[in-house]
Every structure is written in C-alpha cells, then in structure tokens.
Write a structure and sequence with these properties.
The chain is of the alpha/beta class. It has one domain: 5'-nuclease (Rossmann fold, 3-Layer(aba) Sandwich), CATH 3.40.50.1010. It is 49% helix and 12% strand. The N and C termini lie close together (12 Å). The model has no long low-confidence stretch (mean pLDDT 95).
Length: 136
C-alpha cells in the first residue's frame, strides 16, 4: 500500500469536487488503497480548515471524512525539520515533518509551497501524479 502525506488543500478539494482527482484520492483512502500519513497537528489542521464557514460543509460530513482518514492513517512520529525556513509558508512544516519522519511523498495542489530546497529527497506530487502511481 502506498502511503503519503496529503496537504489540506487536497482534502478540501476532494470534498468540493468528489468526481475530480482529489475526490478520487479521498475515495482511495476510504477504500484502503492508500494510507494517509498524519500527525495530531495535521488532523487538527484538517478539522480547523474544514470547519471554516466559507466552505459550509455539514458537520456530519466533516466528521465522516476525518474519522475515515484517522481510521486508515499511520501517525508520524515527531521529527524536527531543520530546513523549515526554506518553506514559503511556515504552516506547511507539519506536512514536511510527517513526510520526512516516514520518508513518504507529500501530495499537494500547491507544489510551489514545497520547494526542492526544503524537501530535498521527499517527493512532492500533484494529486494527478499520485493517483496515477496508485493505478500502476
């Protein structure tokens, strides 16, 4: 099974566009075809963002998604990342730290948020690229 860290934008996009690539990734998680790598900080970030009024997601839908992710996830141990200052958005360190701790890719719709200088040997993949790898 392929494991990866999923940036929050992938989860949000998956709910907003269930028939699109991010939606298919959420389906793959729910169906057990891939394993999300999370931390307590990542799960908290997912919840905070999904609960934003601008999305107007039903609380029951949020809990179903978070429960599904949590049930299938592997929790990454805390790993400090020395190159965090190279990330354009310091809030993204939680994703890089989780990916680094288990040496798994980051899947994001914002590839520019994870430059090679910061990520080094951690692959940063678009949702489409990750989905294609799942089907190989």
């Amino acid at each position: 099974m392929i494991a990866a860290v999923f940036d929050t934008n992938v989860v949000v996009s998956g709910i907003l566009s269930p028939d699109g690539t991010p939606g298919r990734l959420l389906d793959a998680i729910v169906d057990g075809l891939c394993q999300p790598v999370v931390s307590d900080s990542i799960m908290a970030e997912y919840e905070v963002v999904l609960c934003r009024p601008k999305f107007n997601f039903a609380p029951s839908k949020i809990h179903i998604i978070l429960d599904a992710i949590g049930a299938r996830a592997v929790y990454a141990p805390f790993t400090p990342v020395s190159r965090a200052r190279d990330l354009p958005d310091q809030d993204d360190i939680i994703f890089l730290a989780a990916a680094t701790s288990l040496n798994v890719p980051i899947v994001t719709g914002n590839l520019k948020h994870f430059p090679r200088k910061a990520c080094r040997n951690i692959p940063v993949l678009s949702p489409a690229t990750f989905l294609a790898r799942l089907h190989e």
